[in-house]
Amino acid sequence: MERSELITVTGSTGYVGGRLVPELLQNGYRVRCVTRSAESLQDRDWTGQVEIVEADLEKKNEVVDALKGSDRALYLVHSMSATRNFAEAEQRIAKNFVEVSDEVGLKQLVYLGGLGPDDVEKSAHLQSRQAVGKILASGSTPVTELRAAVIIGSGSASFEMLRSLVEVLPFMVVPKWVTKTKCQPISIGNVLESLLSVLGREEAFNKVFEIGGPEVVTYREMMDTYAEVAGLKRRLILPVPVLTPRLSSHWVNLVSPLPFTLARALIDSLTTDVVVQGYGSELTSDRTPDKLEDAIGKAVTRVQEMEIPTRWSDASNFKDPARPEPSDPEWAGGRVLVDRRSLRTDLSANSVMRTIKSVGGDTGWFAFDWLWAIRGFVDELLGGVGVRRGRRHPIDLRVGDTVDFFKVTLVTPRRLRLLAEMKVPGHAWLEWNVRETNAGSVVEQQALFVPKGVIGRAYWYFLLPAHILIWRKMLQNLVRLAEEKNN
Q: 435 by DSSP, 3-state: which?
């Protein structure tokens, strides 16, 4: 296959699609992204390298616009989080897509479906996934279908549900299938490798391939593995026979940010064994699949290192697909607690940044230095770093520098981010961003906290009143000090 071929990606704003596009570009393909709204793709690192087509896939004439001139297409759309009848919607879209694929002479259609046996009763979600596969395969266009179970990676709906349950609840009453149903989870990295490996391979045409990681586990075992990797105590889990999928969905909805309709569809699918039957996997990837512990570790570690290009941080050079992406929904990436505030000033951005970069050391923390000193003393008693480290230089900062009990993880002409290295039940950052305006600048300050378990959440909310007072005064004094220096 010529790497210059045009590959059309549907679902490019979704979890898998948003991670697959940069992989396709890196492998030399031309890429067309199909989306309902072009604005949804404007914040990606790769936006300028792809063609973007707006299309509603339920409208056949718009599907023609999406596919004409394409060589191959990746079908990565689903509607299971919709409030409407998602199965009917998925089948209408699939019928339109396969008809147009035949009309434009598409060379190959690659579809990512759901793992599960064809001959047993299963959830509406899994039934719909496999029904879509059959519809796509009914045309003359060669189709390659990959089937996967739970995908492990930050932003995957199944993984985010797992994360929320284990992080929030030290004790769970669960349906008995949680301890009995078998699953073969797979890392997002391995899913992307599999999709790439079948693209353009004639021996993969008109075939179904099941993909999974090396371990077959119950959902309880997945929870235990997550707790171990995340450094949490093993959760107490009591299985009972009376919790229906609907009741379980309401329970998940109370402790998880996932929408109820999405949680319900996922839980329905978790009541069916989803295990690779052993055929076709030799064509999908040459690399040894990631172990469950390693896959979870990648998704958890990226939070600890703040290598997260999400709605509240910039892109980094860390390219592991397990990390969050701008395409992820609001509930993805783990719980992030934020205090965000801003203040206008007549000063230029450069003037304000000079003051911001002097934080810590002899300058102090702009407000309540005596409280910071007490916090440092307590941290030393707990075996932490305390505040005695100071800083390398009074005004110059580099990535990796220490600032009392913080470490610099990002410094630019307009931004500074500090990672807290004191003992806290989670991971905390302080960040300042200065925006230039026609009449001065706007100083934005935010405190970010990724809590670790119930204790982490309790820590945040218990100290929130004091922190609000401290952070408000910090920002006010920071701007006042900058103005005094420039008078």
A: strand
